[in-house]
Write a structure and sequence with these properties.
CATH class: Alpha Beta
Number of helices: 4
Radius of gyration: 15 Å
Largest sheet: 7 strands, mixed
Order of helices and strands: EEHHEEEHEHE
Distance between the termini: 10 Å
Strand order of the largest sheet: 2-3-4-5-6-1-7
CATH architecture: 3-Layer(aba) Sandwich
Number of strands: 7
Length: 162
């Protein structure tokens, strides 16, 4: 197995955000009010399958429900019309908010939604009043993901090999 490079990025103030929007009026992002593990699992599989997200695939529904129902987790789904275009999860960790999962569904890659979705993720994270917003990215993720984080104003603070 080849080495995985993990890049850690952060934003220390909302003023650093370089917003991007989409001109598609069908694109919208909704916070999921009813916390259900089944939804989080299906989003994780839909978005993560192409990028070999595996860390939670072995979880039981009990584990998924416990995770989804955490008072520190917020889940947001992006739609184009009624189709799921992507999602992100925010996890409050003390004074920080981590964008724990972020991505687009395969059918929506390459259509300019990534920057708009990340803008909404960062804005939603800052509404939780953290001291910083952070995320990690790895070289197994979409090739444009790291550049999207940097383009939105996040800064690299650590790089690790695994």
């Amino acid at each position: 197995m080849s080495e995985v490079t993990i890049t850690y990025l952060e934003m220390r103030d909302l003023s650093q955000l370089r917003r991007k929007t989409t001109n598609d009026p069908r694109f919208r992002v909704v916070e999921i009010a009813e916390k259900k593990g089944e939804l989080n699992r299906s989003l994780y599989v839909l978005i993560g399958e192409a990028w070999e997200w595996r860390d939670k695939l072995s979880w039981s529904m009990e584990e998924w429900n416990s995770y989804a129902e955490s008072e520190n987790l917020k889940t947001f789904v992006a739609y184009v019309d009624d189709a799921i275009a992507g999602y992100f999860e925010l996890m409050v960790q003390g004074d920080d908010v981590e964008i724990t999962y972020f991505g687009l569904a395969p059918d929506f890659l390459g259509n300019g939604y990534g920057g708009a979705l990340l803008t909404q993720a960062i804005e939603a994270a800052w509404r939780l009043s953290p001291s910083r917003v952070w995320v990690h990215n790895c070289n197994l993720d979409h090739p444009a993901a790291l550049q999207n984080y940097l383009s939105r104003g996040m800064s690299i603070y650590d790089v690790r090999q695994q």
